[in-house]
Amino acid sequence: MNQIPLDSGAPTMKSYHSEVPCTWCDGCGDYGIWTALKRALVELKIAPHETLLCYDVGCHGNMSDKLLGYRFHGLHGRVIPFAAGAKLANPKLPVLAFGGDGASFSEGIGHLVHGIRSNYPIVFVLHNNGNYGLTTGQASSLTAQGVPMNTAPNGIPEHTLNSMDFVFSLEPTFVARGFSGDIKQMTMILKKAIEHHGFAFVDILQSCPTYNHFATHDYLLEHCYHVEDEGHDPTDLKKARQIAVDTSKRISTGILYKIEDIPSFYERLVPRQGKKTTPVEEVEIVDVSGYLKRFV
Fold it and tell me: 77 is in which domain, residue-wise?
């Protein structure tokens, strides 16, 4: 088992190196996200033992042993409550959660709703490839209309969920979108998300060369544009929602919306106000033998 390096020097890409070989399909967007994540952490000088990376089930979840650090690989659709709990226990620890579009907008959608609503101070990265890739290409609630998939050869009978419109309806404090082929921009987005003190929702449009043939790498490369190149104001909620939702001709990427004056869930907890210690620092060993004698 790989050991987490505890050297006191500044972390490098090698600090996150794992000897476990990558097994994603050739051309999978996970390679780009994997690289951008490590770059973001290194550029922020966050060492592997100084962060927690939480993974849901899916192709993206197989990243959990492809880099070093404290990592958790959980149940399908349940990564957000685990990550939130870990962050509330140790607010000093940067916590990032990763989920696919299938789990996050189907069985785990309730957790996403309350993650945004509660403004938990974590980063949530949506690996959005428009299908359940790990289980061989089933349609998800974000699969495009009229596209044959393994479990929907005639296309999905339901309407496609507009994920960005849904997210903005929950009054988020940070929304960004990236493209798995643009490592430089993804690195910037992840750094800003980690620095945000509330719930940071990061939608990464991800190519799936095996099963997603409607939003390919080339398609995304042609249609994505950087909002910062057009002078977008990320504090303009109405404009942010508009450019996030409308992907009919081109797709906005970058920091779409960010507001910093909304307190996080932890900051609104009355019992924690004025506390100088974190909950994890307050845990201590208690001798319960005296209580047990009552049952002997």
Answer: 21-295
**pLDDT score, position 9:** 81
Length of the chain: 296
Contact 149, 156 (CB under 8 A): yes
**Distances, alpha carbon 108 to alpha carbons 15, 77, 208, in Å:** 32, 4, 21
Q: Are the beta carbons of 135 and 62 closer than 8 angstroms? A: no
Residue 79 near residue 56 (C-beta atoms within 8 A): yes
Q: Are 69 and 4 in contact (CB under 8 A)?
A: yes
SS3 letters across 156-221:
CCCCCCCHHHHHHCCCCCEEEEEECCCHHHHHHHHHHHHHCCCCEEEEEECCCCCCCCCCCHHHHH
Q: Does residue 12 belong to any structural domain of this protein?
A: no
The 10s digit of each residue's pLDDT in 85-135 is: 999 999 999 999 999 999 999 999 999 999 999 999 999 999 999 999 998
The confidence score (pLDDT) of residue 1 equals 44
CATH code for position 110? 3.40.50.970
pTM for the structure as a whole: 0.93
- Residue 140 burial class via C-beta count within 10 angstroms: exposed 0-12, middle 13-18, buried 19 and up: buried
With respect to residue 5, please indicate whether it lies within any of the assigned structural domains.
no
What domain count does the chain have? Answer: 1
| Cβ-contact 58, 127 below 8 angstroms | yes
d(CA 83, CA 93): 11
- Residue 1 belongs to some domain of the structure: no
Whole-number Å distance between alpha carbons of 205 and 202: 10
Residue 231, sorted as left (phi over 0), alpha (psi -120 to 50) or beta, turns out to be left
* Structure-token pair, residue 199: 């719930």
